[in-house]
Amino acid sequence: MKPTNYRQVCAPHAQRQHIASFILFFLFLPPVCHSQHIGDVEGMLINRTDPAIIPRAIEIDVIGLGEGMSVLRSARTDSAGRFRIEGLPVDRRLMIRANYQSANYHGPVSFNAEGKAYVEIEVFECTASMKDIQVESVYMAFQMDGDQLKSLERISLNNKTHPPRTFMNPEGNFRFSKPPGILETPLIRVTAPSSSMPLVQEALESPDGQSYYSLYPLKPGLTTFEIKQALPYKNRRYAYAKKYYQDVAAIDIGVAPGDMVLSGEGLSRIQSRSQDNISVYVSSPVKAGSELVWNFSGGTPVMEPEISEVTGQSEVRAVPGPVGRNAFVIGPLILMAFMLALWFAINRAAAGSSQTSDSRTRQLQEFREQLLNQVAELDHRYEIKALDRQEYLRQREESKRRLRRVFQLLKKP
Known about the structure:
Elements (H helix, E strand, L loop, with lengths): L6 H30 L1 E10 L11 E6 L5 E7 L5 E8 L4 E7 L2 E6 L7 E8 L2 E2 L5 E13 L2 E12 L6 E2 L6 E4 L9 E5 L7 E4 L1 E2 L5 E4 L6 E12 L4 E7 L8 E5 L4 E3 L3 E7 L4 E6 L7 E7 L27 H6 L3 H13 L7 H30 L5 H23 L2
Parallel strand pairs: 1-7, 8-11, 9-19
Antiparallel strand pairs: 1-4, 2-3, 2-5, 5-6, 9-10, 10-17, 12-16, 13-14, 13-17, 15-16, 18-23, 19-22, 20-23, 21-22
């Protein structure tokens, strides 16, 4: 006799069939999903110095960004300067690096919906001549920090070679003199032409101990070097000496606190901004091979209020004494970086020309982007527990304070 409820008998059997089908479906699904996360990159190298020179057998690396710049895959270009690399993760930020004549060239990887990407990288022949490579601008900032004087120099070199070539010199592509009594090896942050990803490196000392240098190649266009140094400031006095190896039209200099006195031949004090506690100076033109001697004295220390653990508020804060190497990446002497953008944007505003106004706006916008990137990097370091809470709150509030000031300046006509 059949049971009165037929579904009670058939349902378990049907359910088992559905479960079996479900399991079989997922057994075959992983390879399909996996293939969707794998992509291929094709590309080629183009010689912009002489297109007739084909970059053959050049080493190509796929770099994974954000994880120690690890090399994921490697290959070499063929006889036509082309390359193809398969089996790459499409869900990671990748970059192609090509090493041509000892200089590295890069190109970002952008996969389409089918997991395909095409990368074209420009390379240049090398030269050891500094002809047609000029100093575009020099900005310097000095800040008293207890018995130390912290300095940050930003110098931009414009490679105008024609046809375009990359400057490479085994003895150093960028050299700067060693200041008296320097307390630690300088750190250098380099930004290549048309790049938003600076490279941080430790300066190399010359064999005679009189200068430092970087081996970073000077590619066609504008390359910017930022140099961070720690100098002695005992008894609130320091004699700064610097030799320039190329002609410099002028040097813009900012000092903090504003009552610290800077004196030297060819220096003029052009502004004193009490609201920002900085003073602005400008130098006369500097000839290649000449040495500058500047004297620093005095200065009232900035008070350092405690930071609330709850709000993290801090209205005025001096740059901390021990600056770790990572701090140069996150917020390189935040007050000094602010000075570099601030006084450059305003110290010539009195001229009133449209060109000056455009330059002011552009510089402020660039600095705003730098600060936003610093805050993002700061949040990331805090998330991975590479920064304690108090230091995180202090640096974040400082960056926010600078951002507010930049936004105010951008609103002004």
